[in-house]
Amino acid sequence: MSPRPLHPAVALIRQALALLLLPLRAPLLLVLFGVAIYLGLHWSLSDNHTALNGSFQHTLFWSIDCLHAVLVVFICTMPELLLQRVSALMAASRVVSLVVTLLIVTVGGLYLLHLNVLSNVLILASAVLLARLDLLRLRLMPQPLLMALGLSFVVLLGAAVGRAIGVPAA
Question: What are the distances in angstroms from CA 26 to CA 137, 154, 155?
Fold first, then answer.
């Protein structure tokens, strides 16, 4: 005897409940959210931001910080696709391989060290990779783009909460 199919409304409620309980099943998602709150608070209280509070530059700095966070999330959630593209480019010749490696290491390293964001990038990348491992433990591995969008949403939401906590009341 085969089981009876569920009513579509019951199936929808079951999926919504599973999504709501996901942070309890994968607690490292809560850690990622906490790290994002900390980073949002850190960004809103840093010297560059408080001196420009309410100006166009403040919004620009906030946007750049969010772009950094989304870039880190995308790199950490789609490493296979990214490495496949870079490997294909580097396989063309040894000269291209050397130039690409030198360019990535030099520009990336100087950029991260100059902006004093290396520690923030490492903390966020670690939290994203741990959240991915937790989801893998539950055998929840959606397509890489969907995973990147979902984790980016969690990070940006946490950063917005942290920013709201750090902004003094007027």
Answer: 8, 13, 15
